[in-house]
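Hi L., both proteins are below.
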Amino acid sequence: MNLDPENNVFDIGDQTALVCVAASPYQKMISAQLLDLNYKVHLGLFAEDVLLKLATYSYNVIVIDENFKGAVVGEDPILGEMVKRSGAMRREHFVVLLSQRFTTNDAMNAFVQSVDQIINFGDIANFKPVVRRGVAQYHALYRPFLETIKAVQAI
């Protein structure tokens, strides 16, 4: 797995991902699977670091542990930042919430938590196919919306 900063400089057209999971085997498994999907991966070190990265880069996929660095559900500063963004800006990201409480692909709780997909920690081994399918569905749903926004902005 190659996560050194030199290889994670983003170029136009790169698929990018931000992983907000504490250093653990889970972080390594998720990062490796995202690399297999051809994403360039940044790791979130702590909440302030993640918020700075979100202000600097537009990530295609953002993976957030529901308890990242001791965060409490409902008071998580990273999820709070995602909710505060405008609809068009928010739709630039596919947000995955890693949870111990919710089941994988629980659409109702994903809606309640303001994320695009939930993956249970028990399903981390299947992270790659679940995220691949989720991102494909996301693009099919939001492609017309995003194309319209780009067309309006070009006027």
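That was the first. Here is the second:
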Amino acid sequence: MSEDTGIRLVLEQEGPYAFRVQFEGTDLEALHTDEPPPLGSGSGPNPSHLLLAGVANCLSASLLFALRKFRNEPGPIRAEITARKERNEAGRWRIPRAEVSIHLSDPAARLEHFERVLAQFEQFCIVTQSVREGIDVEVRVIDAEGKAFVTGAGEGAA
């Protein structure tokens, strides 16, 4: 894979809890997100859905990459991810665990070096490994006059 110069998304509020997500530097259509009722209207995926979709999608793509690396030509795959929100010690909602099932359309016995594929494919998944290791997120709030406020909330906030 080639080096990446960065990822930039721009979100613009469209409703009480709805946002238009633009993928800067791409030709992709903007994505509409929204929180479910009672906060929003549920007119788009919410951040929890996007997080889980990112994990399952990345794992699926990484599995395909690993299979093809060993000259396999796998049929279509299907992935399912499930999770539950739970409150942490501070009473904040979090997703402490997710379960992913990736369904192959090929018998494992027909796939070359399948054990090696299984041993390494998760390491190719940027999203899952980043989530597992934790992502350091710096947050600034900038007011209408351009004054920046660094929140420093980190763990336990929100």
